Structure formats: C-alpha cells, structure tokens
Amino acid sequence: MKKFEIVCLKCGAVQPQAYTPFCEKCNYLTEINYDLSAVRLSASTNPFSRFFELLPVKERTLLPAEYDYTPTVHAKSLGKILGTPELYLKNETVHATGTTKYRMAAVALAYLFESGVRHFCTSSTGNSSTAYATLIKNIPDLRMSLFTGSDFRSRVNYADTEQIDHYILKGGTFVEAFDCASVFAAEHAYTSERGFFNVGRREGLKLAFFEATDQIDQDIDWYVQGVSSAMGVYGTYKGAKELRQLGKINRVPRLLCAQQETCSPMVDAWLADSEKIRPEHIVANPVGIAKAILRGNPSRVYPYMREIVKESRGGFAKVSDRRIRQARQLVLDHEGIDICFSAATAVAGLIKMRDEGFVPAHDTILINLTGSDRPQGLVPRQVIFLEKTSDRWVRSAKQEL
User: Fold this and answer.
1) How far apart are CA 341 and CA 67, in angstroms?
2) Which of 186, 244, 316, 396 is least surrounded by CB atoms within 10 angstroms?
3) Distance between CA atoms of 61 and 58, rounded to whole angstroms?
4) Pair 364, 216: CB distance under 8 Å
5) How do 4-8 and 30-34 pair as beta strands?
6) Residue 57's closest CA among 122, 115, 138?
7) Tens digit of pLDDT for each residue in 83-132?
8) Cα 18 to Cα 326: distance, rounded to the nearest angstrom
9) Whole-angstrom Cα distance, residue 20 to residue 162?
10) What is the pTM of this model?
11) Is residue 11 within 8 Å of 24, Cβ to Cβ?
C-alpha cells in the first residue's frame, strides 16, 4: 500500500484521510505528502500508471487503464521567431475533452471517492465540469451537483446522465456559481468540492509537467500557463519539487502566469506588490476572449500563488486581446496546433516577458497549451435554471431549454 499523508502547510498537522481541503486546526491549505523514499516510477507510457505512486489514489482501477502521454513539441519554428531556441509546447488539446483538465478530473474524482465523498457540488467555466461529467461514469456511485453561470452554459459539453444535477444561474458569474455551490452543499449535507482547494485537482494537474520531463532532454527553466485560480501551476511546482527530491530533475522551473487584460486580478495585485487581492483588483463582471480563465475574484487563492511565484523567481503578465489573437495565430502558423484563447494567453504572456527581457533567450521554456475550442454541439438539456433574489438563488419559474 502506498504511503501518503494529508498535512497542513502552515502548522504541519496531519489531517484525517477524509476529504479535508483545509486544516482542521488552523483552516490553512492542506497538501499531500508522499513517502518519497518508497516511490518507484513504472516504465509505462500511461501517465496514470507511470506516476501512480505520486498520485493520491490507492486503487489503480479508479484511474484510466489505457491513456497515453500528450505530445511535447520542440517548437523550433515558433522559437526562431521569438528568439527562444529551446521552446517546448505541451499539446494538451489532444485530450478526449480537448483540455488539460481531463487528467485533473481522472485523479480528483478517484481521490474524492476514496475520501468517502459520494455527492459533491462544484462550479466551472466549462473545462473542469466537462471533464468531470465525461469521467464520472467510471465511478457509478458518485454524483455531482454542477453550478454554471449562464454565459458559460455552451462551454459545458456532456451527454445527460442521472449522475449529474446541473444548475444554470441566469446572469450569474463564475464566482456566484462557486458560492452557490458551497451554499447548496451546506444545505444538503453534500461535499463542497472547492476547486483549487481540492488537493486531488492540483495533484492531477501536475501530470503534464511530469510527462514533459520524460519528453525533454534537459531541465526545464520556465513553466508558463494562462491562469484563473492557477491550480495547475501550483500543482506543477509541487510536483517539480517531488521530482527533484527523487533525483529525476536537477531544479524546479521558474513560474510565469499569464492573464488577459480584461480580467487580471492576480497580475494587478502582483504588480502592486500586494500580499492579497484588494478591492480595486477584483473584477466584478469579468469579460474577455479567454473564457476558461475568467475569474474575477481569486482572493483566497492568490496569497498561495504569490508565495510560490516569488519563491521560483517567476512572475505574472497580462496581455491584450490583440496579443492573444496574434499568439494563437502564430502557434497555428508555425506549429500547426489550433489552441483556444486561454492557451494563447500563455504564449502571449511569454512573448511579452521575452520582449521585456525578463525571460532569457536561451532558457528552456515549457508552455502548457491547456486546451482547444471544444465543439459545442453536445450541450445537456436536463438542467435547472436559478434566478437571483435579494439574498439567494432560487429555482426559476420559467425552466426554458
């Protein structure tokens, strides 16, 4: 049996094996600690098998039995244009749901189930919920109540299933959907899944970096990603430390997080050298072309991200719609990969920071191309519409299709 503990990153208290996103003593972030002396990586090309002993799942059968690495492309043509000869692109568009969140969902669902969860509540701008909805059928005894802002309904793509209750908030934002999911969970004694704070999510998202270390011959100096809550970046940094302790890599990468100018609360707080998201950084009604990363109020997440970005000697960058569109076209023209605007935000962020001299030309750079534009023909019809009253969301009298 593999050995891991759930511990508090602040006070060090060991937590129960039940689902515990926050420390029961001090309410700080919890994390998974593995007995690295006992970890052995397998010789499999299935990432869930190769890195199984670095995942918080005890039963292998809960994870995909047949799955391959996604490509890591040495982007020589694009790198020549950008003046970065050691530029690599992790092509996550090839996942079954077109997004890096597929791995996240596979690990997080198994982790929730093994932690005793049987019904959880969550929210999403589309990628996470689509991945959850696609994979939840593999665990028939697990149910999900999903909350989605109306602007994101078309981005949630799955076939109707009795395992999912889907609530659409008319005119609601992602943050309102997140809060509504928490209230609903408390009222019905379900588990509030908590997004970034579900350690299973962060552990699943480190797999993209793990794969890349097998696919790139030298150490990776920079890890670049477009972010909303940045749980993928957080998971990557933690995973890189694990690989360094195991002697698989010699150093952890510097982190570069990119956001779009129309919704950049983390970048604005970073540029103001603020330890937290202040009221002036919050975007109440976020808009932008990179819809997957439209999170206007990451107040609880940002302090954790600021800490690791500073520790890595990395940074945050915000980019315009024009730069994002240009970056998307550059990747398509030079590397033949059709990415979404959220992935293009990462590319645009790197270009900006290269132009400013922050990223050295000959460093080895890995950009996580987190996804593509998913065909949106498959939209669930078994949904429940909610309307906002003065103090809460209630079932709408008009349940339109």
Assistant:
1) 26
2) 186
3) 9
4) yes
5) antiparallel
6) 115
7) 999 999 999 999 999 999 999 999 999 999 999 999 999 998 889 999 99
8) 46
9) 27
10) 0.95
11) no
